[in-house]
Amino acid sequence: MTKNKNFKTNFFKTQVTCGILIGIIVVLGGFFYANINAMKKAGAMMGPPPVSVATADISKMEWPVESAAIGTITPVQGVTLSVELPGTVTELGFESGQFVAQGDVLAKLDSRSERAQLAAAEAAFKLAEISLYRSGQLLSGKAIPQAEFDVVEAEYKQAVANVQNIQSGIDKKQIVAPFDGRLGIRRINLGQYLTAGEPVVSLQSVDLVYVTFYLPQKDLSYLKAGLRVVTTSDAFVGQQVVGEISAINSEVDRQTRMIEVQAILPNSDGHLASGMFVNVRIEQSRPRAIHAVPSSSVLYASYGNSVYTVTPSGEGEGYIATQKFVKLGERRGDFIEVIEGLDFNERIVTAGAFKIYPGATVMMADERAPVFKLDPNPKDS
């Protein structure tokens, strides 16, 4: 009986001890679970804050199908005037930059010696003319033979040629404007001795000018005379000059495989000077519909170009950034064409994309977004 009683007592003590141990384990487990949850919540609260970015919708546009090139302005008529014979400048009839008309005398060289020779030649011409008249009368009366008359006639023709030759030399000692235009900078001074061929001043016609440019041979499929061209210049920002193709070279350059094209432009205000470069655009066909994004939204990388889109966060406020790789097309102004890689009803990050990563939480700050233009003007910024 005593043994049985001791066994029951020990068994009861064991059960009590196990219950106490289980209670302690439950309490400790609950404590650690609460700590872990608290640490998770604290970690979530200590995560990176949402990044402020600017966003915009993908733009649907119509872009003209066109070719672009850099052209050089050349005059329809342009020469550098010079003297054909040497001499000293005795008269100057122009100033640098002056507009002149065809036939205006711009300068004269000393021709006193030639004029003296001309006077003597004209006197000889008068005598030969009289002799020819008298010989003609004598020949008609058969007072002289035909041979003698032929000699007199030859002397007369020689006198005429001599006068013309000296007069030509005098004419070559003056510089005359061959066409209407604007003069350049004067290169000579009064009293200066000029050698034959020495430049005096440049003369350029200004009402019309040529622009010469090169296009790849593939553009031969649509190029033709009369096609409209639009030119712009950084010298006159915001101004366009519209002209048309006047000539296409008959051969393609064998080294560059480019074709030379020439267009004619109006230039009544004289803004387009010979030698300056202009941007040339030629419309090939009707505009095409495209989807474009601001170029600032594109992240360029060797493994592929990408754009970030934003979608509402499933929990709480803010948006989630998603990186999407895109195939790009033509670029114009502040925009670049997106060929594939986006759903065109998505909203994209246009400013601040370099600060985020896939899955980042972002906040929209569209009021700080810059204004994007197809024809941006740096002076407006």
Task: Give a written overview of the molecule.
The model has no long low-confidence stretch (mean pLDDT 85). A hairpin with a 2-residue loop joins β12 (228-233) and β13. Helices cover 26% and strands 40% of the residues. The chain has three helices and 22 strands. With 381 residues, it is an alpha+beta fold. It starts with a helix and ends in a 17-residue tail after the last strand. The strands form four sheets. A six-stranded antiparallel barrel has the order 2-11-14-13-12-15. The chain has a five-stranded mixed beta barrel with strand order 1-21-17-18-22. α2 (112-140) packs antiparallel against α3 (146-171).
What distinguishing features does this structure have?
alpha+beta, 3 helices, 381 residues, rod-shaped, 26% helix, 5-stranded mixed barrel, 6-stranded antiparallel beta barrel
